[in-house]
Every structure is written in C-alpha cells, then in structure tokens.
Amino acid sequence: MTSSSSSRVCVTGASGYIATCLIKKLLQRGCVVHATLRNLGDEKKTAPLRELPGAAERLVLFEADMYDADTFEPAIAGCEFVFLLATPLQHDPRSTKYKNTTEAAVDAMRIILQQCERSKTVRRVIHTASVTAASPLREDGGEGYKDFINESCWTPLDHSHSYNNTMVDVLSPFHSALIGSVPLAHIEDICEAHIFCAEQPSIAGRFLCAVGYPNMQDYVDHFVTKYPEITIKLKEVVGKDVRVQADTNKLVDLGFKYKYGVEETLICSVECAKRLGLL
To answer: Minimal CA–CA distance to 32: which of 64, 68, 56, 67?
Structure first.
C-alpha cells in the first residue's frame, strides 16, 4: 500500500478519532476507502468524513452496527485490507441478546472475521483494541504489578471497574491503576503504525503502540513546568508512585519509526487544546 496505491480498504467505526485520522491518511495515499458508521443519517458524524480531501472520489460510506455484525459484509466485500476500529459502547441489555459490551464485541469480531474469509479478497485484518486489554496486573490475583509490560501481558478477564456517567472522572485513574503508567502516542504515529502493519509483506501478532509510558505524576510535572500559566486543580494524583517498565519495541524492531517523542506529543496535545478553545 504505497503512496500511489489504489488499494480498496475498509475502516470500521469511521466517526471515531483514530478512524477519521486513518481514513484521511488512506485517502491521501490514493486508497478507495469503505467506511462504516452506525447511522448514516447523523450529519455530525458523516460531514467531517465527506469533507476530507479525496472523499468525493474515493470514500464510500456504509451503515453497520456491532450489535448486528452481519451488516458489515457489504463494506468488506472487495477490500484487500480491513481496519477494525469499531467497538460497542452504548449497551442497552433490554434491546440486545448480549449481556455486556465485551460479549457483543467478541461475537461481532467472530462474525466479521468470517466475512473477511468469505470475501476471498481480504489479505489482512488489523484489529485495534483498547490499551487496557494489556496490563501488568498479576495473573495470580495478587496485589501489585509485574515488573514490565509487553505484548505478552493480558488484563485478567474478571477484572472490573465500577464507574459513574462522568467518564472524564474515570478514564485517567482507571488507566493508571490498571496498567501502572499511561501509554502515550501521537495520533500521527498511531495511524502510521496501522498502515505499517498493513504494508509489511509478512507480519502477524499483537503490537503495543506507545512511544512512552509516563505515570500520572510525570504528566502533572510536565504540564506544571512547561505551562505555569495553566492552573491544574487535582484532589489527588492516582498512581503517582507506580512505575512499570515498558518493553514495547516489537514494532520498532520490525522497522517502524515513531515521528513524535513523549515531549513533542505532550506539547502537541496542549497546542491542540488551545486551538479548540479548551484551554
């Protein structure tokens, strides 16, 4: 899949942040992109995609839902590469046969992979999962962490976390408590890593994409030092004494190069927030 590629690819969960940025890059490379969304009638979700450079000529939108995975087959038909970024987030047990989002995701993945096999055109599937699927929590149920995190680490299936509706209050503490540190990667590098995995002639397995694993105290210290004009109000810093050694060079060993380091990524995040009027 080179810059002059005319590959036909499918990207699920197209309205998500990573998927939208990935679609933009794929269109820039000349790919024909089949993109799926839950509701094609939602202009807030479809308009940004239709406005991407090259979208008028090479972007085709499909309606598909993880809770009805058979709907993905038309989008997959004829594609060489399938990027699976969709995930079931809005779960209503009254309107579905699935007990929870995990059960829905697993069944949808099984159905979609069968569709890829039936297509006779799909050469590779790149599935994007939450980083919380990999953690150095001890598998024997004991307290604390392993000394490292890499692609061999899995979050225990019975691990749960109670939360309320205010997701902002939940995500950072949950990540820090779950994996000891918070993995960091620039969106440009994340998208390039997806494309890298599609382009390699022989690649398979699981890859963690992170240029660094600072803990929450590292993030606070950085922002306080670099941006003294920004007031940071925190009741506490969760996981400030937790630090897990990351061994996530598997992608790099295969030839992938990160363009942005930890410092640059954090700077870009603040500049983006300022442009959006969030700071």
So the answer is: 56
